[in-house]
Amino acid sequence: MTTRALLLRVTLLCLTVRAVLEAVGFASLAAKGETPWPQWLGMWSRWDAPHYLRLAEIGYVNHPSPNQSDPLNIVFFPGYPAAIHAAAWVVRDTLAAGLLVSLIASIAAGFLLYRLTALDHGDRIAWWAVVLLYAAPTAYFLAAPFTEALYLAAVLASVYAARVCRWPLVGIMGALATATRM
After folding, report:
1. What is the pTM of this model?
2. Would you give the distance in Å from CA 113 to the centre of its chain?
3. CA nearest 146: which of 55, 68, 34, 38?
């Protein structure tokens, strides 16, 4: 399969999963009696996402004012907030930027998983590996503004680069992975 065709296929699959997750989110908001449209993006800002988004906006700062500083932010690695900050220059909203970074990283992870699996098992098994990655219940974490998609993409890129003997890329992608999470 050509690179372009594979990228298109993985992108369509990833967008389909994202659409299904959006539909589930809308249905759950409607079931609670809430209007989904005003909260379309806000429903993604849960658990650790607000911390990453805040770090993308203001960075690791220590202001004397208690409402401006959170010393516990040091537990969050800087790779993902830095990627959100860069994407926010384009989309002008940190939550949308976080979702965009996760989407692009999810597509990259699927693409790299396919390439890595195809080295040993061929195209059919490689495609099923990608489908199962996105079909797993934990695929939610690849769509949400969390570190998982960027981390997975970096790890897969590092392992794939090692398999094809591109050693400088192994180090760069490994460094990106360690800048994203433990």
Report:
1. 0.89
2. 15
3. 55
